[in-house]
Each structure stands twice: as C-alpha cells, then as structure tokens.
Specification:
OB fold (Dihydrolipoamide Acetyltransferase, E2P); 2 domains; five-stranded mixed β-barrel; binds 4-amino-1,4-dioxobutan-2-aminium adenosine-5'-monophosphate; binds magnesium ion; eight-stranded mixed sheet; BirA Bifunctional Protein, domain 2; alpha+beta; 31% helix
C-alpha cells in the first residue's frame, strides 16, 4: 500500500480506511499519543497507540525526532484539537533519535541556537513554515513571468565581469595558492589560470541577461549570486538568490510598473496558497513582538501587512524629493541619523530608506532618478547630465528589496562613462556590441529573493530564510 501525505489525510476523505503514513515524531505523550509530522503541512496527525499491543522495547524507540512508518485506521477524533486521528495497528521505526543528544526537543529554541543546527532546524514548525513559503514564492515567480511572456534565462555563475562595479567578488581559480605563476611585474599571472583570465563568481546576471533580452525580448534570471561584501547585517548574505528580469523596449516607467505588479502578484499568491503557514508565522511574530518595547512593535500583523502591499499603490518619488524630505525630517534635525543628510548626492543608508517607508510615506516606495555618481555604470543618463534612470523599491522593515534601471543604450554615452570610471573598454567589448548592433531602449531590475522571503514570512534575520546561509566567517554545512 502507498503511503499518504498527512496534508491529504487531514482532509478526512480516508475516514475508516486503513492508511500508511511516514514521518517524524514531534511528541509522544503518556505512551499513547504520537504527534507525527511529515513536512507536507504544519499540522501533525495524532496517532493513538494501544500500548498493550506493542513491545515495550519498540515503544522506547518512539521519541521526539524518530522516523516512523505507521499503519492504522483513520477515525474521527475523540479528543479536542484535531478532527481525525489514526488508530495504530502497526509501527515500524525507520530510525530512532536519542533524546540525550538530539537537539530539537519539544520546547522553544532560540533562532540563534537553531542557526547552529541548520541541518536539523527544518524539523521545527517555524523553519518548515518559512521553507514552504519560500518554495511557494519561487513557484509564483516562475508563474508570473511565464504568464507575461518572459523566457527563463540561465546566466553564467562564473564570469570575468563585475556588473555592479563594486569589486565585491569571490575569485574562482585553480592556480596553486602557495606558488602562483607571476608575470614580469611580479603580479599573479592569470593567463595561466584555468580560464586564461581572472574570473569570479557572478554578482549579477544582468549584463548577460541584457544580451538575451536583445533577441528574445523579455527574459528573467532566477539564480544564485555572490557578494564578498563584509556586511554582517540581518539583510545581507554572501550567497543569495536574485530574480533579474530584463526587457527590450521598456523605459523606466514600464520597468517600475512591471516590478510593482510582479511583487503584488507573488505576495497575493502566498496569501492565497500558504494560509496555514502564514497564520503560524503571524502568531510567532506577535509573540516575538510582545517581548519588544511598545514603540518598536509593528502596527500591523503579518497578513495585514502583506495585504496592505497588495492593495496599495507604491509611492513613486524622485531621489531629489526624497533628499528634501530627509533633510527636513526630525531625526535629521535632531542628529538621530548615524549618517546625517545635508548634501544632494549623498548615498542613502538603510536608516534613511526605512525612515521614508516606515515613518514618512507608510507604504512601499519607489525612489528613482538617482545621482549618477552613486549608481552603477550601465544606467541611462538623464538629460540633466547628473542623474540616471535608476529605481530602488523600498519596503517596510526591509529597506531596499529591488534595484533596477533603464540601461544606457547609446554607444557613445556608455563609452564615455566607462572611460570616466577607468574601466578598460576591452573588458566590456561584447556589452558594447549590444549598443553597436540593433541597440534599443531597455530596462530591468533585480529582486533579492531572501529579502522578499523575509518580508513575506515576517522573520527578522536573513540567515533564517535561506536553508544554509553563507555570511562572513560562516560557511558551515
Ligand atoms: O541593487 P543590486 O546590487 O542590483 C543589481 O545587482 C542589478 N544588476 C539588478 C538588475 O538591475 N538586474 O541588487 C539587487 C537586489 C537588492 O535590491 C537586494 O534586494 C538584493 O539584490 N541584494 C542582496 N540580498 C541579500 N544579500 C546581499 N548581500 C544583497 N545585495 C543585494
Ligand atoms: Mg541596489
């Protein structure tokens, strides 16, 4: 007989039938009630054991964490808290879990403790719920683009270019680290390396996506990206997943419209499909907030916050307007910002982004037309000669969730910018070719997937929404 997922069993269609389930013990009470979970749902199913029918040695192995196969009859539950339960006929112990050493016991563990047990933490309600929402969001992302005529495009992971120009890259090499070949100037000679040049893990698939958009029209990437920035914050990972759509014949306005519509779709999707997990995460968040001072508590519960994003138009504001607001703001005047705002041209820090979103506008904000100096080389220069067609989407509790732009499609303007930044044109020869042959207005953006999962689940630390986080000083598992 085939085993059945607990999720399906709980629908009650198998009433009075003999069924088989597999799962892990959450609790075993009074030598009689096993709460079994198999990952298919947050819920456990209660399995009622008549202990006189079973060997004492076997019952001893039924401890929190043990993997079991149970066969029995699905009946209406006598007890409270569940509608159906299983009257157990047979138990097979796939594997036991010694309570002396198994760390995930049925009590509250801190998220910090569980981070050190990242290989086992998915057996807790919180992490299983987060990972199911993460999976649903991934699916929704593919669905959205498929429904809107995009092709899924795979950008290379190993590349020679630094798309963002920030120099925060992990080198990929097979050279002998103790005795690398040197050139006449005494520097490492990468022409002898595996690829015959210096290469690194990609920080963004954008440049390659641009090439493909200029033939397929609309493409998107959804893959891992890497940044060797030494930011030990609750919003940064060294390895994170990014979604990067790139569209030919789109200007910045069309780009912003797409980004807003896309985000609303994926959030509405999880609201519709992940009710049980979101309810659990909402309660978790409420409990966590009770431990905070009143002033720091969020005014909205998790699902209300998600609904708010779906139902409200994102506020679109130019960088210049934002600077005026920030300059005149109370925290700026009272010198409460760590980085005070006085000059036009200042880069915005997350404290400023969060002030705009959480205190001033109280809704998601799209900031656009940033100073060219603080943005990447590929963004289209405005006629004022000092701002570029950039846009960042800022979210409550998160800060920047999307970064995008209209791309500079004019060959001469791009060449001038590259030269001004001291980048060798030869490194970008193929990227410039896109402007030599059939160039056209085009745009795109990058959504940080883990920041989206953070927002959707109400978790507070980005390390808790990716299975095995990579951060400075940490690549365990
Ligand atoms: O703003 P970024 O650097 O933009 C780009 O990489 C562009 N090439 C995207 C494009 O136009 N195709 O990164 C995009 C998003 C950020 O808004 C943020 O959500 C996320 O990626 N992100 C990170 N997420 C986690 N950890 C990090 N270290 C991140 N760096 C960026
Ligand atoms: Mg950015």
């Amino acid at each position: 007989m085939q085993s059945i997922a607990i999720k399906d069993l709980l629908k009650g269609h198998h009433l009075l039938q003999e069924v088989i389930i597999n799962g892990w013990v959450r609790t075993f009470r009074s030598n009689r009630f096993i709460a079994l979970n198999d990952g298919s749902t947050l819920s456990t199913i209660q399995c009622v054991v008549d202990f006189e029918k079973f060997d004492a040695d076997l019952l001893k192995k039924i401890q929190t964490g043990a993997a079991l196969r149970i066969s029995g009859t699905l009946v209406e539950s006598q007890g409270r808290g569940q509608s159906v339960e299983i009257q157990v006929n047979d138990i097979f112990v796939h594997g036991s879990a010694d309570p002396e050493t198994y760390p995930i016991q049925p009590k509250k563990h801190s998220l910090e403790f569980l981070r050190e047990k990242a290989h086992l933490r998915v057996r807790t309600n919180t992490f299983a719920a987060v990972m199911r929402v993460r999976s649903a969001l991934s699916f929704a992302i593919h669905q959205y683009f498929r429904d809107h005529g995009f092709y899924y495009f795979h950008a290379p992971i190993i590349t020679g270019s630094d798309a963002e120009g920030a120099g925060e890259m992990f080198r990929v090499t097979t050279l002998d680290d103790k005795k690398p070949p040197l050139n006449d100037a005494g520097e490492v000679d990468y022409s002898e390396d595996f690829f015959g040049k210096e290469t690194n893990l990609t920080v963004s698939g954008q440049l390659e996506a641009e090439a493909y958009a200029m033939g397929l029209g609309k493409v998107y990437t959804f893959g891992p990206t890497f940044r060797a920035e030494n930011s030990n914050t609750s919003r940064h990972l060294a390895e994170f997943w990014m979604i990067e759509p790139e569209m030919a014949f789109y200007d910045l306005d069309a780009n912003m419209d797409l980004a807003e519509d896309f985000i609303k779709f994926v959030i509405a999707y999880v609201l519709e499909h992940c009710q049980e997990d979101l309810q659990f995460l909402e309660k978790r968040l409420l409990d966590e907030e009770k431990t905070k001072p009143q002033a720091e508590r969020s005014a909205m519960a998790l699902m209300e916050k998600l609904r708010f994003v779906v139902d409200h138009t994102f506020k679109r504001v130019t960088y210049t307007e934002a600077i005026d607001i920030l300059r005149a703001s109370t925290p700026n005047k009272k010198k409460k910002f760590q980085y005070p705002i006085d000059e036009w041209g200042a880069d915005l820090q997350s404290e400023h982004e969060r002030y705009l979103v959480e205190k001033h506008f109280k809704c998601p904000v799209i900031l656009f037309d940033y100073p060219a100096k603080i943005k990447a080389f590929y963004m289209r220069l405005n006629d004022d000669g000092k701002t570029v067609r950039a846009m960042d989407i800022l979210f409550p509790g998160i800060g920047e969730i999307v970064g995008g732009s209209q791309r500079e499609e004019r060959l001469e303007v791009l060449q001038q910018k590259i030269a001004a930044l001291g980048i060798d044109e030869k490194e970008l020869w193929w990227y410039l070719d896109l402007r030599r042959f059939g160039t056209a207005e085009h745009s795109g953006f990058g959504l940080g997937f883990e920041r989206l999962v953070l927002f959707a689940t109400g978790m507070g630390n980005i390390r808790d929404v990716i299975p095995f986080p990579r951060t400075p000083q940490n690549a365990e598992f």
